[in-house]
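quick one before i forget lol
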Amino acid sequence: MKICVIGTGYVGLVAGTCLAEMGNEVICVDKDIKKLEKLEKGIVPIYEPGLEELINANVPEGRLTFTDNLKMAVEASTVCFIAVGTPQGEDGSADLSYVLDVASNIGEYLNGYKVIVNKSTVPVGTAERVTEIIKSKTNFEFDVVSNPEFLKQGAAVDDFLKPDRVVIGSNSQRATEIMQELYSPFLRTGNPVIIMDVKSAEMTKYAANSFLAVKISYANEIANICEKVGADAEMVRIGMCSDKRIGSQFLFAGLGYGGSCFPKDVKAMINTAKINGCNASLLEAADIVNKEQRAVFINKILSRYKGDIKGKTIAVWGLAFKPKTNDMREAPSITIIEELLRRGAAVKAYDPKAFDCAEIIFKDRIEYSKSAYEALCGADCMLLLTEWNEFRRPNFEKVKSLLKYPVIFDGRNQYNGKRLIEKGFEYYCIGKTLKVKEIAAV
């Protein structure tokens, strides 16, 4: 099938590459010429496991091409995916300007029947607006469908190639059949294609992400209560997860959710509720808890140092909002590091993939270390902010020898606190209180 994907951001690049991997002829369109030139050479602007290998396999075969010529791409394609950004507006709503601009251009370039696919995360009613814009530009037949993505950063390629489900919002049998044919190679294991009306599909994406965000905020709120009453949040989590009605995912206490999806989608859902006269108090609470969770962690650090961290050198392990990505959008590390710097601390940081993003945010205000252990040298304490695999089982004797004082603040509850305390560390985490003997020299 001949396909164009408009937008080579995170969603568009993964979608286009994976569709090409299944033998389709895919044209990826973007305005950024330098980015396109790099992609043609196999230089990928985002870190996503497996993506670079697939691009480098499909470009030489001619199944995957990159261009800034939207007219050519639309005219050559049967299915046109819109995968441009929908950034958060000042009121929390999704900014649809990029989506609607693309729709207008598509309308001008139609040369026959097309299926126009909203792959971007968009609020309910967007397909109707896209339809109206295209209709005003052409007399050719077309259908607009909603096909929300459910890709987890760090596992996006696997998620696309082996999806739990594919949601297709369509009010046209013709478009539905084309989309079913397109996705059939990805669903040979029997996972479902769920066909629904367009508005329900648009809502499904926001509803799913908002639910997961609520679970994370709930886990953090319970963890904070556990810490106050003397319970162990991890034991409580295990007890809860054994109930099949609850499940085990997204209930880990920590620093809250970040990234490009959950924060933006929760706010967009709140905005959608408000403009339609609905109450969204649960989602509003989840958003508040998430913001406050960073403060909970910062207050642990401040409490340990009696409110004064001026002149302290703090080592940070992890900058990306989660492992296996270089994405720092809405990352907890940003809020935490900014507060440390504001209070006069020096920060030495290490992340396996996120330095390019970090340098844009922090510039020369922090020190970028070449390794996790280098970041520890002479630091007063270490903060674990992202649970990369390489941080899971470090050499703690080496950690202890490199730190000025063996103090660890574990924002991901990754380490066995009792064992570290036995090894002579001060250890602080989320959701439990351990008996810690403070090191007097700190």
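fyi The radius of gyration is 24 Å.
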